[in-house]
Amino acid sequence: MATRKVTNKSTDKINIQLLARLCKMKGVKRAVISPGSRNAPLSVAFNRQEGIECISLVDERSAGFYALGIAQQTDEPVVVICTSGTALLNLSPAIAEAYYQQIPLIVISADRPNEWIDQDDSQTIRQENILEKIVKFSCCYRSESDREDDVWYNNRIVNDAINIAMNGAKGPVHINVPLEEPLCRTTEATPVVPRVFGEIKPAFNLTKETAVEYAQSINCSLKVMILVSMQRPNDELNKILNTLSGFPQIVVLTETISNMRGDKFIANIDRTISRLTANQNKTYKPDLLITFGGPLISKFIKRFLRENKPAHHWHIGEQSYTVDTYTILTQRINSRPVDFLRSLLPHIQNNKSKYAERWVLMNKKAEEHHQQFIKTLVWSDFKAFSVILPLLPKESKLQLSNGTSVRYHQLFKNNRVVRVDANRGTSGIDGSTSTASGAASTFYGDTTLITGDLSFLYDINAIWNKKLSSSFKIIVINNNGGGIFRFIKGPSTLSEMEEYFEATHSIDISKLAEAYGLNYISAQNEKELKRAMKIIYAWDKPTILEVFTPREVNDEILRSYFK
Predict the structure, then answer these.
(1) Beta sheet of 288-292, edge-to-edge order
(2) How many CA atoms lie within 13 A of 164 on its CB side?
(3) Which residue pairs, CB below 8 angstroms and at least 24 apart, start in 208-211?
(4) How many helices (H) and strands (E) would you count in the chain?
(5) Which helix (H) or strand (E) holds 448?
(6) CB 154 within 8 A of CB 15
(7) What angle do CA 408, 394, 361 make, to 5 degrees?
(8) What digits encode the pLDDT tens for the residues 307-357?
(9) I need a labelling partner for 214 at 20 to 30 A (CA). Which of 5, 192, 294, 403 fits?
(10) Which of 268, 531, 438 shows the shortest CA–CA distance to 449?
């Protein structure tokens, strides 16, 4: 958190004052700032702007993901400020994740004056448009000019930037700000009020005739599959999907991070799909596939649909690019899923299909197998998940790191938490802890991150944060390396497996917890884990629970599960 704001004085760069004020007027409530010299005017202006909470985080990579976590949970624009040079590049992993998760980050980078670019001046790189492939909008702010046209230009591009970040498929935008020395002078805050203009997107309304036409395709199909991947919770959409799952020809498949729930949904795709034999594929293959949401986790469903191609595939979404994951796209529907499905729902009718019934029966058999398998489990990653998930606090939130954590969770029912998130836009190892800590800062209840040891260590600067939420709990599954590579056919056969893929280590996480001032507890078996789960949620302090599991049995257990 920033120090006390002084509202009657700000940076002497008036255009920077106006930038901070306009961001506040456009709905920005939080700014994450990484310390630096060139960005001093930005730090001063935003910290002294009433109505904007400022958080200081030294590591830009962690700061970017922390901001992403806040915006992910609030669905509001969050400003990220950095100094010039490679600081901006350190933000790029979080920006890429925000782009593919459709999260509104307002990235504001300080820069050297244009005439000093490529002149061997210190901390200087070509920053303008450097992020153009992973942002929705990029511009250069005229911070040093008081010409009327330049002030007008600045006002327009900042309005544009935040409107673009928030409308349609949301996402990050980049405002590059060249700044001349001196950088640290202050003056009386300007009374000038920037001009704000909004942007109204026309509502998506199908004509009755078009809605009937689309609905008729569903009515005439005996096998309709709705596949929902990564997205934020939406109560209306969830209600519509529950209604649709009641039609005999429609089955709804959901991933962990789709945040959609229903009694008839196939919510554990991998374990259900893995039961299908080659002879059954034709029976379970859809005639019509309807998809929406972000990138999928399940390789099982990707392979199933690519090998058993539906005749028709509709993808619903507001992306600026075409998503054709299964190479069978027949209809791209540029709409919010809730709007499109709401239009169709009154016109959808039952038919004589047994398609949904077959999927529900197969899912029931998979659940029975799952429960039987857990009873026979020895201590392992799989066993640890079977203990942890039922003991998460009710109405809490869950974050999952990439690698095995998010994939194990796909195999379990988990109705105790209100929301599940993971950085699956780009699926990188970086930033899971930082994202989760940012998410935790927006929520009064408990937020739990389940992560692997490598993912946690890779993002260790996430806990270099004086303002970590006291209700933030980190569960580290420590199997001494990147266990996911033992499941992957290629790396697991190579002699370089342990050194260059799994990356075994001897780092003492308890010492890191002590160094950063977090509570710590560990567990090495089921009994200790059950005890530790009760303890960590009783502690009013950010806490690490390290769960030690064996390194070399997990792949065998998971393979036997799917057999």
Answers:
(1) 250-254, 224-228, 288-292, 312-316, 331-333
(2) 19
(3) 211/343, 211/344, 211/346, 211/347
(4) 20, 19
(5) strand 447-452
(6) yes
(7) 50
(8) 999 999 999 999 888 989 999 999 999 999 999 999 999 999 999 999 999
(9) 294
(10) 438
